[in-house]
Amino acid sequence: MNHLLRELAPFGDDAWAMLDAEARDRLVPALTARRVVDFDGPRGWQYSAVDLGRTEPVTGPDSRTEPVTGPDSRTEPVTGPDSRTEPATGAETRTEPATASTASTAGIVARRRRVLPLCEVRATFTVRLEEMVDFSRGATDVDLTDLDQAALRLAAHENRATLRGWTEAGITGVGAASTQRSQTHDGTPESFRTAVTAAVAALRDAGVAGPYALACGPVDWAEIVETDDGGYPLRKQLEGITGGDVERTPGIDESVLISQRGGDFVLTVGEDLSLGYLHHDADAVTLYVEESFAFRVNTPEAAVVLRRAL
């Protein structure tokens, strides 16, 4: 038995396979960030932090550290306005300087290795047991609305954390990290073309090679795909300018042009999106979809934000 506790659910492997397939069908189209940044993983549930290859000095009268013990020693909740799916928890045991000892550290140089901890994020949902019984009878129209909504919430959260950022979790997103001047548009075809062309030019001037992908918030994306400018779809025009795809991206409002050359932005996933069991009663079973991830920016100049003019 692993941490997902699937063996405790009041249904068997066939039902779990059906739920997994439904979640996958909803998640794959919505996980846009994974298609426009580098994906590292999945590295497994026990993978807790990304090695940053850097250190920081350990200072004070005693450079030793002691683990924080007690109920808060495993994970700590990440809170804030952007943690709307479910409380996420950081996967790092905190350390505090020991104060009991006054041993001299003369002649000792101490440095602590820096890591980027992964965050665990979870969205819960319920399924009526009557629906699962009907599935066992051969029903193919099982009501999984709550699962679908949970999957989409989690996908939007991953997109938002990656492309906009998640301050409470220590994640700086692509847009927040970008050192390029943002471009503005008013939603018209000419304005879109001008903004995207200027963004591509800025990246090339900075020595950032293409192709480039355009991750669009749902409003921008709808306007792009619905526009037939002079008999030629605007989406095709923009893809011709960028050399990459125009992607609908739930979870963000603006659009972001991102180099696809590789190595600039990395999404590291420990546990990939998985379904687990919480509890059940006579009427329904409560489950969840969960993942752990971290995100880091290596080249902040490799993206340009496109904002709608006010």
Rg for CA atoms:
23 Å
Number of strands: 20
Number of domains: 1
What is the residue-mean pLDDT, rounded to a whole number? 89
The helix/strand class is alpha+beta
The CATH class, by name, is: Alpha Beta
Helix tally equals: 8
| CATH topology term | Major capsid protein gp5 fold
Low-confidence stretches: 63-73, 85-95, 98-103
* Approximate helicity band: 25-40%
What coarse outline follows from CA principal-axis ratios? flat
H/E element sequence: HHEEEEEEEEHHEEHEHEHEEHEEEEEE
Largest sheet: 7 strands, mixed
N-to-C terminal Cα separation, in Å? 54 Å
Strand content: 25-35%
Under the CATH scheme, which architecture would be assigned? 2-Layer Sandwich
Would you mind describing this structure in some detail?
With 310 residues, the protein is an alpha+beta fold. It has a single domain (6-55, 113-308), classed as 2-Layer Sandwich (Major capsid protein gp5 fold), CATH 3.30.2400.30. Helices cover 29% and strands 31% of the residues. It contains 8 helices and 20 strands. The chain has helices at residues 13-30, 33-36, 129-137, 145-163, 174-177, 189-205, 218-226, 234-242, and strands spanning 38-40, 49-57, 65-67, 76-78, 88-90, 95-97, 111-117, 119-128, 165-166, 171-172, 183-185, 212-216, 228-229, 232-233, 246-248, 255-259, 265-269, 274-280, 284-297, 303-308. Strands 1, 4, 5, 8, 17, 18 and 19 form a 7-stranded mixed beta sheet that branches. Helix 6 packs parallel to helix 8.
